[in-house]
Amino acid sequence: MTRKFPFSKDISLAFKNDPPGQWLLALPEGCIRLSSGYPEPVLVPAEAIKSATIRLLDEEQDLPLQYIGSPRIPQLKEAIRQRMAKRGVELMDEELLVTSGACQAIDLISRVLLDDKAVVALESPTYMEALEVFRNYTEHFMNIPVDAKGMDTDRFAEMLANRKREGLTLPRIFYTIPTSQNPTGTTLTPERREHLLVLAEEFDFLILEDDAYGELAFAEAPKLLKAMDGGNNRVIHIGSLSKVVAPGMRIGWVAGGAELVSTLGWFKKDLNHPFAQSVMASFLEATDFDAHLASLTNAYRAKSMAMLQALEQFMPPSVTWYAPEGGYFMWLQLPGIDTADMLPQALAAGVSYVPGKHFHLDQEHCEYLRLSFSYADAEAIVEGVRKLAEVVGANLPQDEPQGE
């Protein structure tokens, strides 16, 4: 007889949701990967990381391989503090916690701030893995629409006022990717950033700022929400080196009030990757990081332009999208087409994407999809868009004009 495992009530609640990773695709060989939110292989500094690893082990022998890791690890935290200071956020040591990627940061914050009664407000659409994390802790959400200027703060204000008037629970946290958002590529305008901070004070919620793409803005990015916070600790900032160095290193961080950071550290315990942190510290000490970022930004800007031009050339007139202001992604609307149903045809044609339903809680937004320009090279991007446009054309409602 199969034993029924005695999971806690909270864990059992999470099992009502779909298993994580349902958006991951099994790709056929040779498929052009416009679904993958990974850095292009040639943009991962593999040789520099290799040199940093060799130098680290030559100089320190076994130390980076021990539980506590290299004596260089504090340098990693200091390097993060210096980068945050450059972007307008001065942090004390006790206000910064290094994590194993941004997802661990989101999970830790959820663990210490949420319960099954808490309400989470978030952009719609938003990062699918954040949705998976939040749904492990609560079933109560507010979905705030996103347009070309980022999250619609006027609509958010209306929703908050309505909830307060009706005596409904107000959000405990608002999760946002304000710069080069995943999946839309949009950036919250300075005016909306100011408005969001006013709303947070008025309705007493915390802002969880996910800045995974903030240093990949194609033009000068607006100020960090954390930098606009005025020391109120209303904003909890999450950063990551996954998109700008290497995702497999799993280096992220949380910047917030000392009490919160201490509590996060309590529950994080020693769930670090000492070797990865040691290698990253060795890499950063030998890298002109501003030059590295400039090179990445130029490359991704060029790749985004290749995708935009291909979309203009090949897609039917009814298909629309936002021009990204940075990051990795573009968000397309295909009126009258269920993009989840269309996906097998796209894969058979040799191109992949992520259906839009995975970026929404209700999974009913069927006529959207996310494309990534980060992984494939420019030539493959153009060919992938051409293949996708052919599939889209074959699925258009009758009498819809075709693309080129």
Enumerate the spans where pLDDT stays under 50 for 5 or more consecutive residues.
Answer: none
Radius of gyration: 22 Å
The level of helicity is: 25-40%
CATH class of the largest domain: Alpha Beta
Structural class: alpha/beta
Largest sheet: 8 strands, mixed
Number of strands: 14
Order of helices and strands: HEHHEHEHEEHEHEEEHHHEEHEEEH
The named CATH superfamily of the largest domain: Type I PLP-dependent aspartate aminotransferase-like (Major domain)
Strand content: 5-15%
The order of strands across the largest sheet is 2-9-8-7-6-3-4-5
Average pLDDT level: 93
Give the count of helical stretches: 12
CATH fold description of the largest domain:
Aspartate Aminotransferase, domain 2
Number of domain units = 2
CATH architecture heading of the largest domain: 3-Layer(aba) Sandwich
Shape category: globular
CA-CA gap between termini: 61 Å
Protein name: 2-aminoadipate transaminase
EC number: 2.6.1.-
Pfam family, one: Aminotran_1_2
Cofactor: pyridoxal 5'-phosphate
